[in-house]
Here is the input.
Amino acid sequence: MKRIKMTIAYDGTRYSGWQIQPNAATVEGVLTDALSSLLHEPVALIGASRTDAGVHALGNVAVFDTEHPIPAEKISYAVNAYLPEDIRVVESRQVAGDFHPRYDCHSKCYEYHITCGEFAMPMERLYAHHLRKKPDVARMQAAAVYVEGSHDFTSFCQTGTPVRDKVRTIYSLTVCDREQEIVIRVVGNGFLYNMVRIIAGTLIQVGLGEKNPEDIPAIIEAMDRQKAGHTAPAKGLRLCYIRYED
Amino acid sequence: MKRIKMTIAYDGTRYSGWQIQPNAATVEGVLTDALSSLLHEPVALIGASRTDAGVHALGNVAVFDTEHPIPAEKISYAVNAYLPEDIRVVESRQVAGDFHPRYDCHSKCYEYHITCGEFAMPMERLYAHHLRKKPDVARMQAAAVYVEGSHDFTSFCQTGTPVRDKVRTIYSLTVCDREQEIVIRVVGNGFLYNMVRIIAGTLIQVGLGEKNPEDIPAIIEAMDRQKAGHTAPAKGLRLCYIRYED
Here is the structure.
């Protein structure tokens, strides 16, 4: 039995998220069907990140086990022929049989894209959150500094999430000003449900003057979802990469 | 009677090009219907550039005449409510009654986007031409120099185009290397049918070693469409802006 690790890119627009579910098009569902068609055997994926509906990925990761003789590196080329153009397996290779894409993850990187201007430009409408008024990036950057580090991120986690330990470490949280576009880039050892979108929504509110950068420590300490900002829309979010110890 | 000039952005993916035609969704058709609904009167557009099916625009231009009392600057805001999200009127203003978006055009800028890599990334699949092998950008740049200037561009015009004078001036043709992406940017006083796509296709073939940069002068002089390269796919092309004397 071989364990195959795949790196997967997708445009999340058409999908009800990663996780397989009945009566809905999901990335995991479409990919499972494509692999089963290719290998002529049932395939069970273990994904690294269950992205939500409308969230995009440049490098999500999933594994599956197979005894099929196809060389591991060839699987990406072969399965892409069975996939729609909005999902691509960009790499496939064999890993140790006990490799686990969630538990062995070393760090993850997400970006949240915001476009600013009077109107949302058509070519960016599906890949960025549009704001008519541009937030103050210096204020967002000042707030971001407080979010970096190890904290209990209960305030930045959707309520009802059945995870006990809500301590996560954010290695870096940067806010990049590209004139008509703002890109929030966050690297951490793990993320709670909706955590990046709540961080993005909170930074946006700081940038618009609805909250202050100095409010962030108290928001974290409160361990109360109500204290943080809105959950920013899914389409602005993209999972960039997942790193593993090699 | 007022003449209204609109600047229009669109994602061309869903449309059979700019020009209105029966039984097909076109940008001009959808925009005409939206303006007619807004103003409660028939509207006849004069467009600056009849982009092909799948070609995108950040700033195409069109005018129409109306006696409606709505302030010209308000039309963009109002008509966008009647438009799908893949078409936006990004500016509207009154111009002189004899302003003509084609004849008064001073310069136009197009970009042709190429992505390179083993697989076409899903989020770029509709907005760039994908090549597995990356062309040599230095060779493309060397070829581009020969294309700049005033020439009879018959070799770079789709055959059968009923235009007599095929002399056009290209003010600048640059090839920008962004690692995984190559952007060809061209500014000129006017373009023949498919001219930018044929220039792009020819530069790509030069970059891939199928033609040489020094071949370009002879290709131009031949005044023969057969001598130039392929017509590159529509989706890589975007009309960036159209300039007018002010």
Q: What stands out?
A: The interface with chain B takes residues 9-11, 56, 58, 76, 80, 85-90, 118-123, 125, 127, 238 of chain A (CB under 8 Å). Residues 27-39 of chain A form the longest helix (13 residues).
